Amino acid sequence: MLVQGDQVRLEDARGAVRDVNWREQNNDLGPLPHEIRYILFGFFMNLECVDNVRIARTTNLASIGRYEVAKINGCCGYADREVYVNGELWKVGCNYGH
Length: 98
Known about the structure:
Blueprint: E1 2-4, E2 7-11, E3 17-21, H1 22-25, H2 34-42, E4 50-57, H3 61-73, E5 77-85, E6 88-96
Antiparallel strand pairs: 1-2, 2-3, 4-6, 5-6
C-alpha cells in the first residue's frame, strides 16, 4: 500500500493495483489528520494484499456506516486501530489477505 497526499494505492492478492482517493470517498470528514496519516504509513504499509482502507470519525454516523460496510465486504484478514485526534475518536482499518 502506498499513501501519497489523499491517494492510497492498493494491491490485492491477485496483484491488481488500484488507486483510491481518500477525500473523494470521505469528503464529509474534512482534511486527513496527521495522526491518521501516521497510522496509514506506520502500520498498514507493512501489510500485503490490502484490498481496502477505511477511515471513520465516530461522531460521523455516515462514516461509521461506510467503515463497517467496507470491513464486512473486504478480504478475510483485517486490522483496525482507534486514535483520538483533538478529543475525537477516529477509527482506521483495512482488510488484507489472500
